[in-house]
Every structure is written in C-alpha cells, then in structure tokens.
Design brief:
By secondary structure, the chain is α+β, with helices and mostly antiparallel strands. It has one domain. The chain is built from 2 helices and 9 strands, in the order ββββββββααβ. The longest helix has 18 residues. The radius of gyration is 18 Å and the shape is globular. The strands form 2 sheets. A 5-stranded antiparallel beta sheet has the order 4-5-6-7-8, with no helix packed on it.
C-alpha cells in the first residue's frame, strides 16, 4: 500500500528476484507486524521448498519464525501459492500448525499503469486505506480477545532480518545459497 500523509503499513510485501537472464530465482515475502517489526522469508523457486508447479503457480513453504499475531503460536508453517506478476498477480498464504490450517489469506490484483491520475483515483476511491487496514487488524484482535482467545507471549524477533531457505532445503534454516548463481 502506498504511503499516505507519511504513514504506511504493509502486512506483507512480495518481491520477485530474477536472474540476469530474466528467469525467476526466488521470492522474498516481507512480513510486518503491528509492533513495528519486520522479517523476510527468501524462498527459492524451482527447488524443494519452492516448487514451480504447472502453469505460473509457484508453491513455497517455510517454518514461521517471526511473531505476527498475539493469538497464534510460533510453531507453525507458512505455505505460499504465488502467481508472479504479469497482467495479473496473486498470492495466497496458508498458515498451519500441527492440527492443520489456522489462517488463509489471499490477494489478487490486475496490472495498472502507475500514473498521477491513477494514484489520485486510488486515493479518492480508498481514502486512508492504510489506516483502515491497521484499524481492522486491531478491531479483529479485540473481537478475538473478547471471545476469550488467550494471548501468546511475544518472543524477540529473529537475529537475522531474513530467513533464507537454501535451494533443496525445505526446513527454512539453511542459508548457503550457491554463490555462482547470478
């Protein structure tokens, strides 16, 4: 989401990392929490942990290592399904614990030309969108708390700003990328 009046909050930003030949090498999922903390998961494409499944859909998984919600445990796994940007882009995230799916979120969008007129139109159609997102997150948290959901303790953020999954390593703990790969 764009910065409005000096304020921005993006729960998730997705970056597509390409090799010099233009092929997609990795996807970086940058997660922000409402405590002002940020962590990224850098996942390879075309290897275990980041399989490119038929068509344009990329499937990736990694263990959760960054605190996002006071209502969700840390012992979880993220499963991403991504359609890289072209005329359309889509990102679906399923969060699972040992009992199964806990949360499913989806974003889908169409490519639009980035012009001053388009930005003004988006601002007029969706005024203060960033503020609405943060307010919505806190509103939903209040409803969960009122229903009796217990709060999970907030651990320190990971020492590294990025969890890099090595090609062939589906655990999310490896960081030894092949330095010869551009």
């Amino acid at each position: 989401m764009p910065r409005l009046f000096g304020y921005a909050f993006n729960p998730l930003s997705v970056y597509f990392c390409h090799r010099r030949d233009g092929s997609l090498m990795a996807v970086r999922h940058e997660v922000n929490n409402t405590f002002g903390e940020r962590h990224s998961y850098l996942l390879p494409v075309g290897h275990q942990g980041g399989e490119h499944q038929g068509g344009d859909v990329i499937q990736q998984s990694c263990p959760k290592c960054f605190y996002v919600s006071p209502f969700m445990d840390m012992a979880m796994t993220y499963h991403f399904r991504v359609v890289p940007p072209a005329a359309r882009v889509a990102v679906a995230i399923e969060t699972r614990d040992s009992d199964g799916p806990m949360l499913h979120a989806v974003f889908a969008g169409n490519r639009r030309e980035l012009t001053d007129a388009a930005l003004l139109r988006a601002f007029l159609v969706h005024p203060l969108l960033t503020v609405k997102v943060v307010a919505g997150i806190h509103w939903e948290a209040l409803k969960l708390w009122r229903k009796g959901m217990r709060l999970r303790p907030r651990p320190l953020p990971p020492a590294d700003l990025v969890t890099a999954v090595s090609p062939g390593d589906a655990t999310g703990r490896g960081t030894d990328w092949d330095s010869t790969t551009p």
